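Example with several molecule types.
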Amino acid sequence: MANFNLKINGKNHQLDVDPATPVLWVLRDHLHLVGTKYGCGIAQCGACTIHLDGVAMRSCIIPVSAVRDQAITTIEGLSEQGDHPVQQAWLEHDVPQCGYCQAGQIMSAAALLSDNTKPSDEDIDMAMHGNICRCGTYTRIKAAIKTAAKVG
Amino acid sequence: MPSVKTSFNRRSFLKTTAIAGGGMMLNFCWFTACESSSDKDAAPPAKAWFDFNGYLKIGDNGQVTIMSPNPEGGQNVKTSMPMIVAEELDVDWKDVIVEQAPLNTELYSRQFIGGSQAIRHGWNGLRMAGATARQMLREAAAQTWQVPVVEVTTRAGVLHHQASGQSTSYGEMAAAAAKLPIPEEVQMKEVKAFNIIGSSQKNVDGKKIVTGQPLFGIDTRQEGMLIAMIVHPPAFGVKLKSVDDTAVRAMPGIQDVFTVKVLEDDFERQHFDTCTFLEVVAIVGNTTWEVMNAKKAITIEWEPFAAYTEERTPYGSEKQTFTIPAGLENSADHLARMVESAALPRQVVRKDGDPEAAFKNAAKIIERTYTAPFLAHNCMEPMNFFAHVTAEKAELIGPLQKAELTEKTLSARLGLPVEAINIQLARLGGGYGRRSYAHWVVEAALISQKMNAPVKLIYTREDDMTGGIYRPAYQATYRAAIDADNNLTGLHINAGGIPESPLYANRFPAGAVDNYLAESWIVNSNITIGSFRAPRSNFIACAEQSFLDEVAEAVGTDPIDFRLALLQRAKDKPVGENNDYDAERYAGVLELVRDQSDWGNTPANTHRGVAAYYCHNSYSAQVLEVKVEDNKPIVERVSCAIDCGIVINLDAAINLSEGAIVDGIGNALYGELTFKDGVPEKNNFHQYRMIRMSEAPKKIAIHFVQNDIDPTGLGEPAFPPVFGALANAMYQATGKRLYDQPFNLD
Ligand code: FES
Ligand code: FES
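Resulting structure tokens for the full complex:
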């Protein structure tokens, strides 16, 4: 066990936890931020995507000890009112079916748009390649990203 | 307006109202899925709510809370079902708040996900629930205003009496109306008067999903809750021999390790009590990570089991005996055994005319064999369930497709009366059939019972993917007899699978061919299977539609014209009995997709394939347009026509159908689970390939047939035809027919 001071969604959190614990489980089990989802645990599905200093990362394979002073953003903190342009675009296109993969999809999309305000189809395909949706909402996700790009 | 006798009898509705008034929300909810869906902060909150029936209550501020009876797993029922109630109640959709109903078999019927039947079965009940409350509001207004009830009209939550110019809101009349007796007969709207049904309304949980609120079973948390995981046998064909948990018990955060007998040997099993591993090892601890670590460190010995038989009662049918063979199975042997079994005597399921003679006299015979592998469901949310079992009762929360049946299993297994079992329906992170087989819910309950504590059981992705309940492996051989004039004179289908046959003997082209023979066989296996989005259809549609494409080509006819001619025959002069489709509606979707895809005008450098299928009471036809680059198909465009009767929530219906198409393309190209010595050869997404964004079609256009027919299934019907349309399009692109799934161009 070791003490960590994490900056999550703009707030500081102190916790005493096994340094090897993946950020995913720190968020879900210790801090009760359950918007970040478990899908595979091996960085293959994207359900657990968060931002570390604004960069999309798979929280299931990042040990809490590796975070140091990087700022963590989760789906709960992407915007205060749930009105980030990506979230708004998701609502406008009514993207989700079951919804389970969508927090990860939104985090990947938001990171893409913060780097690249006018992504091409290929840019979108590349940035979203790590996010699986068994319900098959890909065409809507792509349309929503394009809508968000126009607004953002 | 059609006047309809309410099928809720007075007593059941009164009982309903009493239950509802007496505390329908029996438990506080631990997660927001049960909370109302309202973002409607604008209106002042209701000070009082009045129950009309189990489906709805009206607030004094005019807001209406509508219960959504069925679990939501992405099919949009939580939005669509309340839309039906709201339509008949005649209320403005913006004044509606939706709540997930608790499991309550007294109040609601068929709180299932399965068979794409939620809307079809719910249709009349939901309409009556709305219409009955509307009628009571009109009666109350008539009494208050001292006018005849027939003169009281409604519009969007307001009651009017034209002659006297009086009007009042539902909210103001709710208290008086809720006290009136339930009418025995109600008027329902004409289809053409619908304004909510057929519109596009946003997913009521949309905001919660995009902001990451707790909604799913896996998000459940309660004070003092422990985390449990199981270790199941690593292979089919082995069982637990011994456990050495000494090291694990000493690991940080670990509370207990024990074995769990999921179902006792003499347990009276229903259909969904398929249990792959009768005994598993449970590890219980404080946090998920600690339990995951212990899971890796535990030492368990396994041993082969002997063959046994198992009795189960398939849903809606008689008790059957299933043989579970011993042994460690291999996929290579599976294929060989299917070929062998297809050559042995088979069960004749249907025979019309004289197929033997047709084949003897044929000028040309075409014979093709199709295969498909086992598939894992791969719901993005792995199996999980919360359970808190005490000596008196069991509280459970989680994602589950057939909670009503699971309740019975739990009652018997835990030794508690059914009334003491309370299951809350969480949103499902995908189901597709997997979550009908609730062995893991029983595991969660038994672990909680043993720990005497609230427990959340979570499967790792590996547990989930290697845990059985797969789409079966199938094989089908189609044989066509063609006469000298290029007429299809005979058809022979010889289909089977491990351990279930995919045959639907009475479906098209049965009824359209004079001489027809459909035969079936099975190969037993200890690998467990379960429903998978459009069971059996998800394979046989591809075999049938690929074969018809090849026959059409052989007789020199356009593939759509060829199918339409067969359908015309089936309509004018059907062969045989019990043909399980309406030839006219079937032809209707083919014609619609032909027109909408501009069939016959294939854009340069692209290639098209068509397929159509009927299942779950609905019809779907699709045209896929592909390019092949570097031996990889790129799906440029999909046109899809669907006849599912009245469409409830248009945009959501389009979304669901788009998803079925993407899912179908993914499974056709990549879906496969193989076995080596009983061990599944894939256990996570680094090995099990799922379709990803770059592989999804660039455009999908969904077209619904407009009609007034009561709604039928939608979650499944758009799935089966994709496989065949893709195979047929890829043939046009490459000149190579594809017979074996997953399709491989190398
Ligand atoms: S859970 Fe992290 S990528 Fe799948
Ligand atoms: S919406 Fe269900 S997995 Fe993506």
